[in-house]
């Protein structure tokens, strides 16, 4: 029986031999077993490096906040100094009150610190 013109007679493609498939499966399994821990190690190291950089940034931020806190504590102490409060009270026309009235009362005559109005 002859084939029509232009058709090439080729044998049908045969399925791979079972031994070849078994070896291929073994090679793929071994490659996967070797590569998986390496890939896992790389991923974990990358996470560790990222965490370290975040830790460094947080430590820098903590140092900045500690400096700011010290500055604010010093400023608060400066603002609450008794001499400064007395000067500000005088400047605003307030005088020291008697016991039980509160810290300062308004001086009717701001030139007189005694509050007598004379």
Secondary-structure element sequence? HHEE
* Uncertain residue ranges: 113-118
Measure the end-to-end span: 141 Å
Q: What is the total number of structural domains?
A: 2
**Tally of DSSP helical segments:** 2
User: Averaging pLDDT over every residue, what do you get?
Assistant: 81
Strand content: 5-15%
| Tally of DSSP β-strands | 2
Shape: rod-shaped
Strand order of the largest sheet: 1-2
Largest sheet features: 2 strands, antiparallel
Structural class: mainly alpha
Radius of gyration, whole Å: 44 Å
Proportion of helical residues: 55-70%
Please outline what is shown here.
With 118 residues, the chain is mainly α. Helices cover 62% and strands 5% of the residues.
Layout of helices and strands, plus pairs?
Layout: H1 18-79, H2 82-92, E1 94-96, E2 104-106
Antiparallel strand pairs: 1-2
Can you walk through the features of this model?
- By secondary structure, this protein is mainly alpha-helical.
- It folds into two domains: 18-80; 82-118, no CATH class.
- Helix content is 62%, strand content 5%.
- It has two helices and two strands.
- The protein has helices at residues 18-79, 82-92, and strands spanning 94-96, 104-106.
- It has a two-stranded antiparallel sheet with strand order 1-2.
- The longest helix has 62 residues, at 18-79.
- The protein is rod-shaped, with a radius of gyration of 44 Å.
- Residues 113-118 have low confidence and may be disordered.
Descriptive keywords:
118 residues, two-stranded antiparallel ribbon, 2 helices, 2 strands, 5% strand
């Amino acid at each position: 029986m002859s084939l029509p013109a232009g058709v090439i007679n080729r044998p049908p493609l045969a399925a791979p031999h079972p031994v070849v498939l078994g070896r291929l499966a073994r090679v793929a399994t071994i490659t996967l077993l070797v590569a998986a821990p390496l890939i896992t190690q790389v991923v974990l190291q990358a996470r560790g490096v990222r965490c370290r950089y975040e830790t460094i940034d947080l430590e820098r931020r903590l140092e900045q906040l500690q400096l700011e806190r010290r500055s604010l504590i010093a400023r608060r102490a400066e603002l609450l100094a008794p001499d400064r409060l007395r000067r500000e009270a005088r400047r605003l026309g307030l005088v020291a009150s008697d016991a039980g009235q509160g810290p300062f009362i308004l001086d009717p005559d701001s030139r007189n610190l005694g509050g007598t109005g004379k």
